[in-house]
Amino acid sequence: MTRRRLSAAALGAAAFCLAVPSAASAHGIAQRADLPIPEWLFAWGAALVLLVSFVALSVLWRRPVLEHARERALLRVPLALELLAGAFGVAAFAAIVYAGLAGNQTATANLAPTAIFVLFWVGVPCASVVLGDVFAAISPWRAVGRGAGWLARRVGGSELPAPFRYPERLGRWPAALGILAFAWIELVYSGRTDPGNLAVLALVYAAVMLVGMSLYGVQAWTANADAFGVAFGLLALLAPLRWTARDLYLRPPLAGAVQMPQVAGAVAVVVTMIGTTTFDGFSQGSVWTGTDGLLQRLTDTFDDIGLGREAAIQGAGTVGLLAIVLVVAGLYRLGAAGMHSVGGGLSSDELARRFAHTLIPIAFAYLVAHYFSLLLFQGQAIIFLVSDPLGQGSDLFGTASSTIDYSLIGANAIWYVQVAALIVGHVGALVLAHDRALALWSDTRIATRSQYWMLLVMVTFTCLGLWLLSAASQ
Amino acid sequence: MTPVLAHAGHWYHAVLYVLPVALVAGGLWWSGRREAREREARAAQRTDAQD
Predict the structure, then answer these.
(1) Mind telling me how many Å the CA of A470 is from chain B's nearest CA?
(2) How near does any CA of chain A get to the CA of B38, in Å?
(3) Which of A6, A11, A450 is the best residue to mutate to test the B interface, defined by the most B CB atoms within 10 Å of its own CB?
(4) Does residue A63 surpass a pLDDT of 80?
(5) What is the rounded average pLDDT of the residues A25-52?
(6) A7 and B24 in contact by Cβ < 8 A?
(7) What is the per-residue burial (b if ≥16 Cβ within 10 Å, else e) of A365-404?
(8) Which of helix, strand or coil describes residue A74?
(9) H-helix or E-strand spanning residue A242
(10) In angstroms, what separates the C-alpha of A47 from chain B's closest C-alpha?
């Protein structure tokens, strides 16, 4: 592909992403009032920050640093901590599933929906970026799998058959599909607010994990096929802390991201994480939900071919979700193709794999930008839901009467946090990409030129994210 | 008024978010062209010096 065609394609993709009317409430709780400058000017400012960061990196960052960053041991981790964390995870899983099955089936009164969609899907990633891979410790299926393995070794001794070799070609594709499936349940599935459905789906997922671990071993399966283990593990690579079985290490922030395994499906996982969050924002805006919006048109199309109304709406959502994930994947592939055009002998596919870790901070930035207010406000519901998990009037810990404090933070402050998250995330991505480019291309000038393309990808993702957020107040 | 202009109120807002992307893309394209011209000029100078 020539440079001119690449440039045209990149601009076309960017325009497709952005040149549609306002969309997305992105879980905003309140309307913003009287920002000192128009919202679109924040996008200009963010683009300028990225441009200045790019120039500063080119001038001041002349050799790969993160690729060779060292970590130091902080302390020994007692075995009891691992056992306690595993037991906590299993107990929490059991409580959520029981609440979903036996409790009040109103979503806001039952522990299960808030625990799964807010605390688990948003809270655990935030904790992972600060504390490291906490989910590996509290994962209920991993804890049960390890416990079962330990028991089997004690009983069966050395006669236990070795697990199958995990298929290399499968890589992390099962995890990417798992994230897509979870997003589909969260954003498209008509029964997503039914606690009973969520509990059954959680049990099904846990059963699949247990079968997979028994076939391929706990480590190989959870590192590749457990959607949540993989997604949260990737975000944990940004953390300054790294946990092993018995040790805790300290490392520079971001440095862990360069360790991201370049296996099959690795790019698909991060692209799916970004794409599904993008669709969450997009699907709440007028382009999607308007009277003559895409949802209406697609639903009518599915209706016309004989699907029922509910199935037609879900069909439309499925198409939208897949389309947005593909657009995000296409943008990234354009960046990789652009890098390929500067030379160096690496194919676009190889470059896409080698730079996939640069998408991790973007995935986290999108998550914070879209779900920060949800975590802050709906997260408070956990305080009363733990006291009354079934929604049947109990008060186990004396907190059942607490309420959500919506005055905790103002709408403008939320906007600033969202803008800051997007800028910091994309600057982090630029840093990772620049560091990797210096490691791949020995000529600094070629390395910098290759990053023109990544800069364009980052600016596009930043403006797309800000556009989705700003449209919430339209 | 054409349909596109009649609906400008719907899309002009998004254009403001496309512009930074277009400007960066344009700047990088121009920068790439300039570097290519410089490389060609240097190569031509080396050829002249050898002759």
Answers:
(1) 10
(2) 13
(3) A11
(4) yes
(5) 72
(6) no
(7) bbbbbbbbbbbbbbbbbbebbbbbbbbeeeeeeeebeeee
(8) strand
(9) strand A241-243
(10) 6
Decide: A288 and A282 in contact? Cβ < 8 Å. Answer: yes
In whole angstroms, what is the distance from residue A432 CA to residue A454 CA? 11
Test the A interface: residue of B18, B23, B34, B39 with most A CBs within 10 Å: B18
pLDDT value at position B14? 79
Closest CA to A175 of A265, A303, A252, A237: A265
Statement: residue A258 has pLDDT above 70 = yes
To the nearest whole number, what is the mean pLDDT of chain A?
89
Lowest mean pLDDT among A94-98, A149-153, A397-401: A149-153
- If DSSP codes are grouped into helix, strand and coil, which group holds residue A160? coil
The pLDDT tens digits of the residues spanning A286-320 come to 778 877 788 999 999 999 988 888 999 999 999 99
Tell me, what amino acid is at A7? Answer: S
Percentage of residues in chain A having pLDDT higher than 90: 68
A131 Cβ neighbours under 8 A, 6+ residues apart = A239, A241
Residue-wise pLDDT for A330-382, tens only, equals 999 999 998 998 877 889 999 999 999 999 999 999 999 999 999 999 999 99
pLDDT at residue A380, rounded to an integer: 96
Encoded amino acid at A111, one letter: L
What is the DSSP code string of A80-142? HHHHHHHHHHHHHHHHHHHHHHHS-S-GGGSHHHHIIIIIIIIIHHHHHHHHS-HHHHH-HHH
**First-to-last C-alpha distance (Å) of chain B:** 64
Q: What is the value of pTM for the model shown? A: 0.88
Mean pLDDT value of segment A266-281: 95
Residues of chain A with C-beta less than 8 angstroms from the C-beta of B20: 43-44, 46-48, 459, 463
Distance CA A189, CA A339 (A): 38
> How do residues A429-463 score in pLDDT, each as one tens digit?
999 999 999 999 888 888 888 899 899 999 999 99
CA A408 to chain centre: 25
Q: How far apart are CA A355 and CA A451, in angstroms?
A: 11
Phi, psi of A121 (to 5 degrees): -80, -25
Residues 6+ apart with CB under 8 A from A434: A54, A57, A58, A61, A447, A448, A451
Angle between helix A266-282 and A227-236 (nearest 10): 90
Neighbours of A89 (CB within 10 A): 21
B2 touching chain A per CB within 8 A:
no
| Main-chain dihedrals φ then ψ at residue A398, nearest 5 degrees | 75, 20
* Contacts for A22 with CB less than 8 Å, ≥ 6 apart: A285, A286, A287, A470, A471, A474, B10, B13, B14
> Per-residue pLDDT tens for A191-220?
998 999 999 999 999 999 999 999 999 999
Contact yes or no for A43/A466 (Cβ under 8 A): yes
User: How far apart (Å, rounded) are the C-alpha atoms in residues A408 and A229?
Assistant: 32
